[in-house]
Write a structure and sequence with these properties.
This protein has 108 residues and is α+β, with helices and mostly antiparallel strands. It has a domain at 6-43. It has helices at 21-30, 50-107, and strands at residues 6-10, 16-20, 34-35, 42-43. It has a two-stranded antiparallel ribbon with strand order 1-2. The protein has a two-stranded antiparallel sheet with strand order 3-4.
Length: 108
């Protein structure tokens, strides 16, 4: 038969008691209530366990990644638009220069 590991716990009433490590680990994972054997007060783990914290961090990182990627895509689209606008202005400037050159050579 396997040995059962115990963990020491305490209650605000001052009572110190032992619980199996597997029970304590399970309560940390499922956040279900357990009770002090002396005074009967309700106890539970409100904080997230390590796995839950890692999942939340991963979700935050993924959200940040999507935001940065969308921002990059918007910036790239604006840049491409500005390049097209500049190219259009350059084309218009070249056309006006040709027209001016043609007008000068016709006058001269």
């Amino acid at each position: 038969m396997a040995e059962v590991e115990f963990i020491q716990k305490s209650c605000p009433c001052g009572f110190i008691y032992m619980v199996p490590e597997s029970f304590d680990s399970q309560r940390q994972d499922d956040h279900q209530s357990f009770f002090c054997p002396a005074c009967g007060s309700k106890r539970y783990y409100a904080q997230d366990n390590e796995e839950e914290e890692l999942r939340e961090r991963l979700a935050h990182i993924e959200k940040s990644y999507r935001y940065v990627r969308a921002s990059r895509d918007r910036t790239k689209a604006r840049l491409e638009h500005e390049v097209r606008v500049r190219t259009g202005y350059q084309g218009q400037a070249a056309k006006l220069k040709r027209q001016m050159d043609a007008a000068e050579s016709a006058d001269g």
